[in-house]
Every structure is written in structure tokens, then in C-alpha cells.
Design brief:
mainly alpha, 2 helices
Length: 74
């Protein structure tokens, strides 16, 4: 019975995904070259910011994870 429920949910999610992808495809076809360039520029800017934040968090978490160890040693 759980399998039928999982299948139904999966089927509904698949249908929802398909509808949303169709809407996106139509919107992309209708956008102008200027809109496309602006969108790509925003994606590039956000990617750079996301990468910088991610690397900053990695560096911060590395320092935090090693600090207690360093303090515990005599």
C-alpha cells in the first residue's frame, strides 16, 4: 500500500514538474535578448557571491573545528 502511495506522490510531483518546466520554456522563448543578457548577468553575479560565501563558511568552520582541539592541548 505504501508503494501505491509513493507512486501516486511521485506521479503528481512529476506532473507538477512538467507543468512548471513548460511555463519556464514559454517564458524563455518570449524573453528578449536584453532580458536574457540581464538574467545571465544576475546569475553570474549571484554565483560569484554564493561561491565567496561558501568558501568563507568553509574557512570559518575549519577554524572553529580546530580551535577547541588546539585549546585542549597543553
Amino acid at each position: 500500500m505504501a508503494t501505491n502511495c509513493d507512486f501516486s506522490r511521485s506521479s503528481l510531483l512529476s506532473e507538477q514538474y512538467q507543468r512548471e518546466m513548460e511555463l519556464i520554456a514559454v517564458a524563455l522563448q518570449e524573453e528578449s535578448q536584453d532580458e536574457r543578457e540581464e538574467r545571465l548577468s544576475l546569475v553570474a553575479q549571484s554565483w560569484a557571491l554564493t561561491s565567496a560565501c561558501f568558501h568563507s563558511q568553509l574557512e570559518t568552520s575549519d577554524v572553529q573545528s580546530y580551535s577547541p582541539v588546539a585549546l585542549a592541548r597543553p
